[in-house]
Design a protein that fits this description.
Number of helices: 2
Number of domains: 1
Strand content: 35-45%
Structural class: alpha+beta
Oligomer: single chain
CATH topology: 2,3-Dihydroxybiphenyl 1,2-Dioxygenase, domain 1
CATH superfamily: 2,3-Dihydroxybiphenyl 1,2-Dioxygenase, domain 1
Length: 129
Amino acid sequence: MLELKQLHHIAIICKDYEKSKRFYTEVLGFRIKQEIYRAPRESYKLDLCLGDDYLIELFSFPNPANRPSRPEASGLRHIAFAVQSVEASVAILEQLGLSYDPIRIDEFTGKKFTFFTDPDDLPIELYEL
């Protein structure tokens, strides 16, 4: 069994960035932690906090597809869980016969992460503490 520690974040790709940004900040009350424009992707990444807890990454992409799964589509992008060790978690996934993506390094934090999917093909990220 995986030893999940906590929910790390929820990533959502929106169709209308400004409208979604207003909704999450003005309607739901999330605080902006940071906003990054990634020019090569023509994409915004907005990190949102509720109180002191960083919970949501809101992404924009040009013309996202209408589908509920990955990679860069409108709707829920993935759910991320914090784990002590990505390698140990991957070993458990292997024991369970579950497929996963290669371990990668986050370009902004230097932390390790990987993805696998639930039975409905919803992407789940394991992110190292």
